Amino acid sequence: MGFQQGLSGLGASSRALDVISSNVANSSTVGFKASSTVFADTFASAMGGGVSNLQVGMGGNTLAVRQSFTQGATTSTNNPLDMAIGGNGFFVIERANGTQAYSRNGQFDLNKDGFIVNSLGEQLQGYEIVNGVTAGVVSGISVPPVGIGATPTSDKVTVRGNLDSDEIVKADPFVVDTDPLVVNPHDPKTYNYSTSATVYDSLGEQHSLSMYFVKSSTVANQWDVYYEFDGNALVGQEGPYQIQFDTSGKYSGSTPDPIPVVVDTTIFGSTAATMTFDLDLSDFTQNSSSSAVYEITQNGLPPGELNGVSVNSTGIVLAQYTNGTTQKLAQVALATFSNPNGLTSLGDNLWTGSIESGDAIIAAPGTGVNGTIGSGRVEESNVDLSQELVNMIIQQRNYQSNAQSIKTQDQILQTLINLR
Q: Residue 57 and residue 350: Cα distance in Å, rounded?
């Protein structure tokens, strides 16, 4: 009987040492979760003739190997596509055979086709975002390597500034050249203040909208406004237009409000589409301080090439382009389980679901019980190396003790055999 008990103890200690050795071997493995051994005692129901107070155990056995899904420390990396999950959840990975697996290892890169993949070349899954609308099903996350086209200026060109109420009225009239093919250098003596805004046509070509402000000589708190496009007056739009202020210097309206601008770009030898937008001067004031422009906003942009990719805390994959544009491409999906310890380990830092784990609940980071994403970081192994080394010593002692139990039983048996 003693041999069986000692052997079971050796087996249990051996399995525990296997688990400890695996933990130690993976102490530097990104996303690894440490395991521990769960033991149970063994009894034979018939021992002692069924008298319970005389039962002697038959040893021990390994009941389960349980993983600890506690949070590991995070480390910064130089790769913006590396991700660390802060809290619950697993990355959803589509394997080469089309099945889904789950991982805490957030080391990702772009493959030659523009998909975000792990070190095995398997695709990270998420929700595609098209024109600001998030898809309802998960799929591979793609970052198109091509650039984006130009965005022509439309809607409004808004100028925020101040016109000096102390300006004097100019004696010379402001004259605008009505021939758009002739560049007309303006005499600063004919206006009080000027500024310009950069706008873009449908081909992404940059143009200049110049504005000239002349304090009215006939109407108090009124200014005449003229504009030119690339140094040329636009036929039928020579102005003047008027903007008015109240006695406190606040904008009170313009004629018209806002001021329309229509540019037939064929006039300038361009094949771009006609530009139509409004000049909004409602953010101007008339105060007793120097005339100045504080801000100009418009929605036009030149073409842009892909310049970088990043991921925010809610898992939104953002593409940055050389024209300053940031575009949402997709949102990383996270999976949670009712019983993570029921997951089946596949190796390579991957798990798959099982009956014991329950079905995967897939949602966006930061929603429900899902954790958030740390971009440019990875989650280190949660192995406590000091504790594992102590556990190793304990199991070594256990192994030695069980071996000694077998040796003692052997000595007793030898004594019995030698009786005569």
A: 38
- Spell out the long-range contacts of 172-175 with Cβ–Cβ below 8 A and sequence spacing 24 or more: 174/212, 174/214, 174/224, 174/226, 174/240
Task: Output the furthest CA–CA distance in the chain (Å, rounded).
Answer: 141
Torsion angle, alpha carbons of 65, 66, 67, 71, to 10: -150
Tokens of 15: 């399995």
DSSP lists the bridge partners of residue 207 as: 199
Residue 276, CB-side half-sphere exposure with 13 Å CA sphere: 2
Total length of the chain:
420
Cβ-based neighbours of 19, under 8 Å, separated by 6 or more: 35, 36, 37, 65
Q: 121-145 pLDDT, tens per residue?
A: 999 999 999 988 999 899 999 998 8
Asked whether the predicted pLDDT for residue 222 surpasses 90, the reply is yes
3-state secondary structure of 307: strand
Distance CA 216, CA 285 (A): 15
Report d(CA 199, CA 127) in Å as an integer.
34
User: Chain-centre distance of CA 203, in angstroms?
Assistant: 31
Provide the whole-model pTM. Answer: 0.76
Strand partners, 23: none
- Rounded to whole angstroms, the Cα distance separating 217 from 194 reads 18
Instruction: Show the tokens assigned to 14.
Output: 């051996």
| Two tokens, residue 19 | 């688990």
Rounded CA separation 183/162 (Å): 28
Amino acid identity for residue 101 in this structure: A
Residue 243 CA, chain-centre distance (Å), reads 45
How far does CA 28 lie from the centroid of its chain?
Answer: 25
Beta strands in 43-144 (DSSP E): 59-67, 74-76, 83-86, 90-94, 100-103, 109-110, 116-117, 123-130, 133-140
Bin 324: left if φ > 0, else alpha if -120 < ψ < 50, else beta.
Answer: left
What is the C-alpha to C-alpha distance for residues 268 and 234, in angstroms, rounded to an integer?
11
Give all domains of the chain, ordered by start, each with its CATH number.
2-70+382-417 (no CATH), 80-143+313-320+330-379 (no CATH), 156-297 (2.60.98.20)
Radius of gyration of the chain (CA): 38
Q: Is the pLDDT of residue 346 over 90?
A: yes
Give the separation between CA 364 and CA 314, rounded to whole angstroms: 7
Decide: 252 and 244 in contact? Cβ < 8 Å: yes
